[in-house]
Amino acid sequence: MDIEFLSQNWHLILTLVFILGLLVLEPYLLKMSGIKTVAPLRVTQLVNHDSALVLDVCTDKEFAEGHIPDAVNLPLSRLSSEADKTLEKSKDKPVIISCRSGNRAKSAAKKLSKLGFKDIYILSGGNAAWKKENLPMST
Protein backbone atom coordinates (compact mmCIF):
# COMPACT_ATOMS: atom_id res chain seq x y z
CA MET A 1 0.00 0.00 0.00
CA ASP A 2 2.87 2.44 0.72
CA ILE A 3 4.33 1.84 -2.73
CA GLU A 4 0.94 2.38 -4.31
CA PHE A 5 0.56 5.70 -2.49
CA LEU A 6 4.02 6.82 -3.62
CA SER A 7 3.41 5.83 -7.23
CA GLN A 8 0.06 7.60 -7.32
CA ASN A 9 1.34 10.75 -5.63
CA TRP A 10 4.84 11.03 -7.06
CA HIS A 11 4.27 14.68 -7.94
CA LEU A 12 3.57 15.53 -4.28
CA ILE A 13 6.71 13.72 -3.15
CA LEU A 14 8.76 15.49 -5.81
CA THR A 15 7.34 18.86 -4.74
CA LEU A 16 8.17 18.14 -1.10
CA VAL A 17 11.74 17.17 -1.97
CA PHE A 18 12.12 20.33 -4.08
CA ILE A 19 10.85 22.61 -1.30
CA LEU A 20 13.05 20.96 1.31
CA GLY A 21 16.00 21.33 -1.05
CA LEU A 22 15.35 25.06 -1.40
CA LEU A 23 15.12 25.48 2.36
CA VAL A 24 18.43 23.70 2.87
CA LEU A 25 20.20 25.47 0.01
CA GLU A 26 19.04 29.03 0.74
CA PRO A 27 21.75 29.86 3.32
CA TYR A 28 24.45 28.54 0.98
CA LEU A 29 23.08 30.52 -1.97
CA LEU A 30 23.06 33.70 0.12
CA LYS A 31 26.62 33.05 1.25
CA MET A 32 27.77 32.46 -2.34
CA SER A 33 26.31 35.81 -3.35
CA GLY A 34 28.38 37.53 -0.65
CA ILE A 35 25.46 38.12 1.71
CA LYS A 36 26.20 37.21 5.31
CA THR A 37 24.04 36.85 8.41
CA VAL A 38 24.98 38.61 11.61
CA ALA A 39 23.89 38.17 15.24
CA PRO A 40 22.45 41.18 17.08
CA LEU A 41 25.48 41.68 19.33
CA ARG A 42 27.82 41.72 16.30
CA VAL A 43 25.75 44.55 14.77
CA THR A 44 26.94 46.97 17.43
CA GLN A 45 30.56 46.09 16.64
CA LEU A 46 30.05 46.64 12.91
CA VAL A 47 28.35 49.99 13.53
CA ASN A 48 30.93 51.22 16.05
CA HIS A 49 34.11 49.95 14.40
CA ASP A 50 33.28 49.77 10.68
CA SER A 51 30.74 52.61 10.38
CA ALA A 52 28.13 50.16 9.14
CA LEU A 53 24.73 51.43 8.07
CA VAL A 54 21.65 49.75 9.54
CA LEU A 55 18.92 49.64 6.92
CA ASP A 56 15.45 48.79 8.20
CA VAL A 57 13.16 47.55 5.41
CA CYS A 58 10.02 47.44 7.60
CA THR A 59 6.93 49.39 6.65
CA ASP A 60 6.74 52.98 7.89
CA LYS A 61 4.21 51.89 10.55
CA GLU A 62 6.42 49.06 11.83
CA PHE A 63 9.44 51.37 11.87
CA ALA A 64 7.52 53.93 13.97
CA GLU A 65 6.62 51.19 16.47
CA GLY A 66 10.30 50.49 17.16
CA HIS A 67 13.62 50.15 15.36
CA ILE A 68 17.35 49.86 15.96
CA PRO A 69 18.79 53.26 16.96
CA ASP A 70 20.10 55.31 14.00
CA ALA A 71 18.64 52.87 11.47
CA VAL A 72 17.58 54.25 8.09
CA ASN A 73 14.07 53.26 7.05
CA LEU A 74 13.53 52.29 3.44
CA PRO A 75 10.60 49.87 3.12
CA LEU A 76 11.17 46.88 0.87
CA SER A 77 8.36 48.07 -1.41
CA ARG A 78 10.37 51.25 -2.22
CA LEU A 79 13.87 49.78 -2.11
CA SER A 80 14.38 49.30 -5.85
CA SER A 81 13.23 52.79 -6.76
CA GLU A 82 14.89 54.74 -3.93
CA ALA A 83 18.05 52.78 -3.02
CA ASP A 84 20.40 54.71 -5.29
CA LYS A 85 19.25 58.08 -3.97
CA THR A 86 19.00 57.12 -0.29
CA LEU A 87 21.96 54.76 0.07
CA GLU A 88 24.49 55.95 -2.50
CA LYS A 89 26.88 57.32 0.14
CA SER A 90 26.88 53.96 1.93
CA LYS A 91 27.75 51.78 -1.05
CA ASP A 92 31.32 51.23 0.20
CA LYS A 93 30.32 50.62 3.83
CA PRO A 94 28.91 47.49 5.43
CA VAL A 95 25.11 47.51 5.23
CA ILE A 96 23.15 45.59 7.84
CA ILE A 97 19.58 44.92 6.77
CA SER A 98 16.88 44.42 9.36
CA CYS A 99 13.14 43.91 9.37
CA ARG A 100 10.69 42.53 11.89
CA SER A 101 11.67 38.85 11.61
CA GLY A 102 14.39 38.67 8.95
CA ASN A 103 12.37 37.46 5.95
CA ARG A 104 12.10 40.75 4.05
CA ALA A 105 15.77 41.41 4.76
CA LYS A 106 16.73 38.49 2.51
CA SER A 107 14.85 39.98 -0.43
CA ALA A 108 16.35 43.39 0.26
CA ALA A 109 19.86 41.92 0.43
CA LYS A 110 19.46 40.31 -2.97
CA LYS A 111 18.28 43.62 -4.45
CA LEU A 112 21.20 45.55 -2.94
CA SER A 113 23.63 42.96 -4.23
CA LYS A 114 22.27 43.47 -7.75
CA LEU A 115 22.71 47.24 -7.29
CA GLY A 116 26.42 46.78 -6.58
CA PHE A 117 26.59 46.79 -2.79
CA LYS A 118 29.40 44.50 -1.70
CA ASP A 119 29.40 44.19 2.10
CA ILE A 120 25.85 43.11 2.96
CA TYR A 121 24.67 41.55 6.21
CA ILE A 122 21.23 40.33 7.27
CA LEU A 123 20.34 40.68 10.94
CA SER A 124 19.64 37.09 11.94
CA GLY A 125 16.16 36.93 13.48
CA GLY A 126 15.45 40.55 12.60
CA ASN A 127 14.32 43.18 15.07
CA ALA A 128 12.66 40.45 17.14
CA ALA A 129 16.09 38.95 17.86
CA TRP A 130 17.43 42.44 18.66
CA LYS A 131 14.65 42.92 21.24
CA LYS A 132 15.21 39.43 22.65
CA GLU A 133 18.83 40.40 23.42
CA ASN A 134 17.46 43.41 25.37
CA LEU A 135 19.25 45.83 23.06
CA PRO A 136 17.87 49.38 22.80
CA MET A 137 15.04 50.25 20.44
CA SER A 138 14.09 53.72 19.24
CA THR A 139 10.60 54.95 18.48
Brief account:
The protein is an alpha/beta fold and 139 residues long. 56% of the residues lie in helices and 13% in strands.
List the helices and strands and how they pair.
Elements: H1 2-8, H2 10-32, E1 35-38, H3 40-50, E2 53-56, H4 60-65, E3 72-73, H5 76-87, E4 95-98, H6 103-114, E5 120-123, H7 126-132
Helix pairs in contact: 5-6
Largest sheet geometry: 5 strands, parallel
Cα radius of gyration in angstroms: 18 Å
Name the CATH architecture of the largest domain: 3-Layer(aba) Sandwich
Q: What is the CATH C-level name of the largest domain?
A: Alpha Beta
Low-pLDDT segments: none
Overall pLDDT score? 85
Report the total helices: 7
Number of folding domains? 2
Strand content range: 5-15%
Helix and strand sequence: HHEHEHEHEHEH
CATH superfamily name of the largest domain? Rhodanese-like domain
Helix content: 55-70%
Please state the overall shape, judged from the principal axes of the Cα atoms: elongated
Structure description:
The protein has 139 residues and is α/β, with parallel strands linked by helices. The chain folds into 2 domains: 1-32; 34-132, Rhodanese-like domain (Oxidized Rhodanese, domain 1). Helices cover 56% and strands 13% of the residues. The chain is built from 7 helices and 5 strands; from the N terminus they run H-H-E-H-E-H-E-H-E-H-E-H. A 5-stranded parallel sheet has the order 1-5-4-2-3. The chain is elongated and about 60 Å long. The relative contact order is 0.19. The mean pLDDT is 85.
